[in-house]
Structure formats: structure tokens, C-alpha cells
Amino acid sequence: MVRTYFQEFDKIILGIDPGTNIMGYGVLGLKGKSLHLVSIGVILLGKYEGHALKLKHIFERNIALIDQYNPDEVALESPFFGKNVQSMLKLGRAQGVAMAAALHRGIPIFEYAPKRIKQAITGNGNASKEQVAAMVKNLMQLETLPKEFDASDAMAVAVCHYFTGGTEADSIGGKKTKYTGWKAFVTENPDKVK
């Protein structure tokens, strides 16, 4: 992969916390064993009317992030199983669109369950968002973080991916979840493609 501004890093990981109102992202640069925050923020989606428009914007913004930072890998938080089926469906679509953007650019993707991310970052799979944010702030040696937890959650996904070496199986399904393109995704998930 060609790098310009970010040549000083050995690897760049884009962490994504999918959402339909706010999507968090964190760009982690690695130099040897040193972690560097390249960028962190959120994409606000509340102003878009209709779920389809939000999904379109998620795709476009993820493509823009990938093109800007040239990540070697993309790590995403997998949807958690909640009681509200409609919310889960919308969140799953948002994650799928973010995955599609990475696959469209040929970037390998990995997904991690929320408990796995919290465990990797804080040592406690039931940690609060405040605890995760505090650890991200500490690990990245930052004075402040964005006010939205979606941003610190996204950086936590990237750091979790680094800590696990990109080979850790997520806790949902118990198998490694890495796709290097559409063909690999379809082969691994024939039930998700109709």
C-alpha cells in the first residue's frame, strides 16, 4: 500500500464503532511497539432523514477515511445482542456498510465483540464506557478525548486489534473473522448473501 504523509508508521489500523446516529472512528499508527493516535472522531448521522441516506453517508465517509489514512487493516465492533430487534437490525446494516467500504478498497477487516474489546483495554469485559475512555486516554497519553464515547470506543477497537495481534477470534461464533475481499466474505458467509 502506498503511503504519503503516514510513512513513518509500520502499520495503520482504522477502528470503527458503527452506529446509525453517531459512528466513531479511531486511526492508530504503530511504530515498532509504540502506539500513536493519528486521528479520532465521530461522524454525525442524525441530520440525515431515512435509514438509506444514513447508510449511504456511512459508506462514503468510510471510503474517505480509508483513502485519507491508508489503513493496513480495519477493525470493527460487532453488534451486541439486545432486546430491540429493530435497533439491532439498523446497527447491523451500519456495520455491514462500513465493512463493505473496507472490502471495496481491499482492506482486511476484523470484528470484535464488545466484551472482548473491554477485556483487552481494561481487563474487565463488563467495563463501563467511561472506564474504556479513561484507558484509551491513558494508553494514548492524551490530555482530552472527544466528548462522544463513540470515538474512544472506536480507538479501543483499534487498540484491541493490535493487542490481540489480529488473530483473536471474536466471542460471537468462536471463529476468526477476517475477510480480504468480497469473495472471502461470501465464501465464509453464504447465509448472509442472497
Descriptive notes:
This protein has 194 residues and is of the alpha/beta class. It has one domain (11-186): Ribonuclease H-like superfamily/Ribonuclease H (Nucleotidyltransferase, domain 5), CATH 3.30.420. It is 42% helix and 20% strand. The chain has 6 helices and 6 strands.
Outline the fold blueprint.
Elements: E1 11-17, E2 22-31, E3 34-44, H1 51-69, E4 73-77, H2 85-104, E5 109-112, H3 114-122, H4 129-139, H5 149-164, E6 178-179, H6 182-188
Parallel strand pairs: 1-4, 4-5
Antiparallel strand pairs: 1-2, 2-3, 5-6
Helix pairs in contact: 1-2, 3-5, 4-5
Mean pLDDT reading: 85
The CATH topology comes to: Nucleotidyltransferase, domain 5
Helicity range:
40-55%
Which band does the percent of strand residues land in?
A: 15-25%
CATH hierarchy: architecture: 2-Layer Sandwich
Give the radius of gyration: 16 Å
Most strands sheet: 6 strands, mixed
- For the biggest β-sheet, the strand order reads 3-2-1-4-5-6
Model regions low in confidence, pLDDT < 50 over at least 5 residues: 168-175
Q: What's the β-strand tally?
A: 6
Write down the secondary-structure element order: EEEHEHEHHHEH
Structural class: alpha/beta
The total domain count is: 1
What's the helix count? 6
Query: Whole-Å distance between the termini?
Result: 32 Å
